[in-house]
Amino acid sequence: MFMKKFCGIVVVTMSLAVTGCGSGPVDEKITVQTSAIEANVRKTLEGFEKSGQLGSGLTGLESDINGIKLTDSAKAEALTKLYRELQGLTKPADIKAKAKEMISKL
Fold it and tell me: Does the pTM exceed 0.70?
């Protein structure tokens, strides 16, 4: 009798241990609102427009433009084209003009 109860308890305990207490990790998508990404792009471009110098923000700018692709691919394509042009510029006046043009596309 004791052995049957003991075996029953072991079986129940083992089944709980194997299945676990929860349903496992939940796949959760975290979305960043486009307006926040566009605000980052605008801020970076305004810095370029003000200074006429390209800085470390150039790498982040590309990443943010790629983030815009998720919701507005046409806008992102236009910005990507202008971004590539911006990368090749060295004259402060040209950088300022291109940054202003990109801001107008937002």
Answer: no
